[in-house]
Structure formats: structure tokens, C-alpha cells
Amino acid sequence: MSFLTSLREYTIKRLEEIRRADLLIGIPSYNNDQTIRHVMKTASHGAMLSFPGMRTLIFVSDGGSTDDTRDEAKDVILDPYVEKLVQIYRGIPGKGSALRSIFEAASYLKVQATVVLDADLRSITPDWIQKLASPVISGEYDFVAPLYNRYKYDGTITNNIAYNMTRMLYGKRIRQPIGGDFCFSTSLAETYLKEDVWDTDVATFGIDIWMTTTAITGGHRLCQAPLGVKVHGKKDPGESLGPMFREVVATMFGLMEKYERQWKAVKGSTPVDMVGEVPSEEPEPFPVDKELLVESFRLGCEHFAPLWKSILSKEDMKAVRELKKAHRDELQLDIDLWARIVYDFAATFHRWPKNRVKLVNTMTPLYYANVASFINRTEALTNAEAEGVIEEYAQRFEELKPYLVKKWDEAGRICEIGV
Questions:
Q1: Residue 9 exposed, middle or buried by CB count within 10 Å (0-12, 13-18, 19+)
Q2: Which of 36, 254, 296, 391 is the most buried (most CB within 10 A)?
Q3: Average pLDDT over residues 368-380
């Protein structure tokens, strides 16, 4: 069922009562009763300290939590000049629908800036509000992406595909294109609202990459805000990131069709402005189940090898089969091979009119193999040294872009003749 608005009637009535605000802090939530109070109080305190006298609204857009998230949010006491609003959004369950309601609130209240924060944050400090909001409030930028000090195995979807592809396609070295904490102008929020995407994967986990890509391709002014260490819910890449990988990648591939003319014209990449100093603190490590990653890859080989054979070149398929034989501590997926795999799947996505999500699902075991390979290469490295490897990988994605264009154009010709 489609909805013309993601706002509830009581939310609209409350916004009419508020009428105007200077700063909106949106918090998409789902079953975050252990952290929502901390995030709200810290954000409130940050707004009071950094923007005294400004009228701030903290808007919790909840996905129908079955724990006490909404009760916790309603009971929390905030600072002076900071109001709160808590609602269950309307629409497809997912972060995108939650953000749609935040875009609508920003547009209605005509705020100077909207900050969005993850509801499971444990490391947020009051200065995050100033770091994220100031570049937009000053009028210098329309979109502020976060820059975190992350453990080398945190953010594997970002490190292994989202950063590489965004940089290669659109020429902007925006390090966290799917970061959960960011800021945008009301004019950009209204641009987002005009897009008819709320019944697609954008309404789920695809929202962050869609927002970043829309900001880049629309010529909006971008910057990055160094926030330091991010500590949030457990994100072992072998356990729970399969659905997120599918939705991020499917959205990213879909956007390639929409912005084909733009990304084909991009050569190389340029840095994105960084506003503020990078904090020096180091993130805490956490265990990663490499055995699960490798076993998931091997199981995927058994299930999907016939399909992979129709997508990958004969040489690359042979290399994938050899990987299956490797011991977990010796598995090494060459970065050029990984880039070609991603590009071949993108081109196949381009020519497949149906079952596209299922196609991306079959790519997930190869992603697990690449993560296991990255772990093997970087286990003895510091976080900074591992970051150097990530940059090396991103550069190779850029250098192999002609391969993508060739495969993409071949897929387009197949579509035209109906083969």
C-alpha cells in the first residue's frame, strides 16, 4: 500500500502547533530502548551548547518497536528550547520510510538544517551536533557526511563496495556514503521528497546511498565532518549484513541506470571538503567470525556457481572456483577480480528486467569471500595501515572503470535487441 505521506495525523497536528523550528534532529529507531535515551539527551545537550537560543525539535521516527523505545523517548527530559516528537511512521518498514517522515517535517518547519542520528549510538558526544549542523547552518554546504575513526572490520559494506563504487562512478571521495549520521539543508530534503522511490529498496536500507548519490548528481555542495570513533550495535559482517548488502547494492545498481550519462563522463576522482579536525582516538576492536564468512562463500559456490558462470568470464570463474579450495587463513581474492565481479554483476543487473534483488542476493557470498580476503591481508596491520589498503582498492576500482563501461554497453545492446 502506497502512502502520500509518512506522517501520522497526530504528528501533522503537532507540527502545526510548533509551526517553525531552527534545527531538526531526526532519529530513525527500531527496538533501541537501551540507547535512545542517551542519543536524545546527548543531542539535546549538543544543540543547547552549540546553538543557544535556537529552537530545536528532536523527532523520533519509529518503525513500530516492540520494546520500550517509544516510551523511553517520550519520557526523556530535554534541555530548554528543545522539543520532542515521537511517532510510528507510515510506509514500508525500513530506515528510508523513517527518513521520509523526517524530510517532511524539515520541509514543513523550514528549519535551517536537519541532523540525522542513528538510534543505537553509544559514542555520540554533544559536539557531534555542532560538527554536523554548522556547515549547513552557515550556508556553505547542503549535505554533510560523517567521517568516522572506525575499526578496520567495521563498515565492511562501505569499505568493500559502497566507497569504491561511489568514488569511481561519481568522482567524489566521500568516505562514508552510507554513514548513519549526517546533515542536510531543507532545500535538499525537499529534493528528496520529490523522488518517487518510497515503494522501493530506498525505503529500507538503500536510503543512505540514495541520499548521497542524489546529493552528488544534483550538484549540491558536499563536505565531510570528522566525528571520531563510532560505537554502535554489533555489526559482524558474517552474521547480519546480508539483507543490508542486498538493499544497498540493488539501490546503487539501480541508480547507475538513472545517472548513466553522468557517471560515464566522470574520469578519476577528487577529494571532498573536510570541515573540522580529525580526532585522534582509536576505536576498540571486536571479534569477526572469519570461519562463517568463508563457509558462507563455499555454500554460495555450491548453490550459485551455474549462475555465476553465466555472469563472470571463464578466467574469473576459474579463479572463484580455486578460492573455494583455499584454507580460511589463506583465502586471497585479488582486488582486480573483485572489481570485475562487481562490474559484471552491475552489467547483468542492467540487462535483467526481473528478479534483480535475487540476482544481488547471489552476489552476497562473493562479498563474504572478499571480506575474508581483506581480513587475511590486514590482520597484522593497524587501522591506519588497513585504511591504506582500502584506498589502494578504491584506486583500482577507478582504473578498471573502462571494463565496467564496456560490459555495461554490451548489456545495453542485449536489452535493445531483446536477447
A1: exposed
A2: 36
A3: 97
